[in-house]
Write a structure and sequence with these properties.
Blueprint lengths: L1 H15 L10 H15 L3 H9 L9 H13 L3 H14 L4 H13 L3 H13 L5 H25 L9 E2 L7 E8 L3 E8 L11 E9 L7 H18 L6 E6 L3 E8 L4 E10 L2 E9 L6 H12 L2 E2 L2
Antiparallel strand pairs: 1-9, 2-3, 3-4, 4-8, 5-6, 6-7, 7-8
Helix pairs in contact: 1-4, 1-6, 2-3, 3-4, 4-5, 5-6, 6-7, 6-8, 7-8
């Protein structure tokens, strides 16, 4: 983790001129910045943070300051703080690859493979990205997916009879791409026939997670708040304040929708409380938004999902 982020930091510094940054500092602030850099390369990460914190309010759009600040926190193991800082870089420099690359590596090394892939893909989709960054992103993307595939084989669900939901998907159009877990907690994914869900090359994806009542003391509100918090955080990084919308709810269901145009992904989901436990059912599309007609169709699909008797 730390080695990869530091290597990326050094690469970005060479591109952005982290010493004597492109943004004009006063003589005093230039000394502070160079002191922060000196502390960093000499392993005094807390000292580097102290110096950089003196500059962040004066230079809120200066990428080298925030890249170094976030990298310090990664090395110290404070990944949540680093995530917020790298997310801030994405928000303030949405056309630059640096913030997306840093987030992708951070998510890859902390095990959040889906979001790591999203941000590697974002780097690869940006115009004007240099060849070295493209090669590195492609290699890192492949590495984490290969690792995930190997892990998925180990946890693959052998007895699929425990998957007790009726999704009513057309078997000619959809296939079971992944299934894992146990009676207490299982996950399953379905992709369109011909699409490579394993390598995250899909346009539509139906997923279900199940949490057994006897093993997990969860309420609909708790699960919804978790989903909301995770998506809201990514949305804010990408400049969207109100990404998650609760469409409707009753005693046993919560329906929601979210879209993050910058990542070209949208989803409508249903949280369903059953006597067995909580079913988390979602229909995702690789689109910047969902049309009214699509929304009606997806909601109809989700509402027709039932639990086998």
């Amino acid at each position: 983790m730390k080695k990869k982020i530091v290597v990326l930091f050094i690469l970005l510094c060479s591109m952005l001129a982290c010493v004597n940054s492109a943004e004009a500092y006063s003589n005093q602030d230039n000394k502070i910045y160079n002191k922060a850099y000196s502390n960093f390369v000499n392993g005094d990460y807390q000292g580097s943070i102290v110096q950089l914190r003196k500059l962040v309010e004066k230079y809120p759009n200066d990428m080298p300051i925030f890249i170094m600040l976030g990298t310090n926190y990664v090395i110290l193991g404070e990944y949540d703080v680093a995530e917020q800082i790298f997310g801030y870089i994405v928000k303030t420099h949405p056309q630059e690859a640096a913030g997306y690359s840093l987030l992708a590596d951070l998510y890859a090394d902390t095990g959040n493979i889906p979001f790591a892939v999203k941000y590697y893909d974002k780097v690869l989709s940006l115009p004007g990205v240099d060849n070295e960054t493209i090669k590195t992103s492609e290699a890192n993307r492949k590495k984490i997916i290969d690792k995930q595939i190997a892990y998925d084989k180990q946890i693959s669900l052998k007895d699929k009879s425990i998957i007790d939901v009726n999704l009513n998907l057309d078997a000619k159009k959809w296939y079971n791409a992944f299934a894992s877990g146990s009676k207490a907690n299982w996950s399953v994914e379905y992709g369109l026939t011909g699409e490579d869900v394993t390598h995250y090359k899909w346009t539509k994806l139906v997923s279900v997670d199940f949490y057994n009542k006897s093993s997990y003391n969860l309420s609909l509100d708790i699960v919804y708040e978790f989903v909301n918090s995770q998506i809201r955080k990514q949305a804010l990084f990408n400049g969207y304040k109100d990404a998650v919308k609760k469409l409707s709810e009753d005693e046993n269901n919560i329906y929601y929708e979210w879209s993050i145009p910058n990542l070209n992904e949208s989803e409508i989901g249903r949280l369903y409380k059953h006597a067995n436990g909580i079913y988390y059912i979602r229909y995702a599309v690789r689109q910047s938004s969902i049309s009214a007609q699509q929304r009606e169709s997806i909601l109809k699909f989700l509402k027709n999902v039932t639990v086998k008797k």
